[in-house]
Amino acid sequence: MNQWTRYMDDALHQARCALRDDAPQDVPIGAVVVDPAGRIIGRGHNERELSGDPTAHAEVLAIRRAAQQLGTWRLDGCTLVVTLEPCAMCAGAIVLARIPRIVIGAWDEKAGATGSVFDIVRAPQLNHFVEVHPGVREQQCRELLQTFFHNQRRTGEQPPV
Asked: Is residue 120 within 8 Å of 84, Cβ to Cβ?
């Protein structure tokens, strides 16, 4: 079993938290930040629809909470585990937080910025390089998103982009 599987399970739990019955539903993406000792120090799920904040992505929220927990913006030695490949904004936040490693569930072939469409986290022009470990619980991560968008189309609701 992959060492990151249990953390991806927690990220999947976070993703499901975005599917509230009592609030606008956000795209179910979840993230956790794991410190070098293996403790989860930051959790997040998409809250853009809920908060009306365009930056309230799972990764950004988990990074903010981890930085608060550690009392510093530098997340040296930490790992970000996320159910869907980060976008350009989140990839930039990962680089700026000095996170050395990300673990990804499913690739995002439309807007991914850690290797599929763009590769911000490994751009030689930047001052920080991030290891990317994809495919952890990939099927479960992909199915959660596919089910969400299928249900959005079925109910006639406009899915958030």
From this structure: no
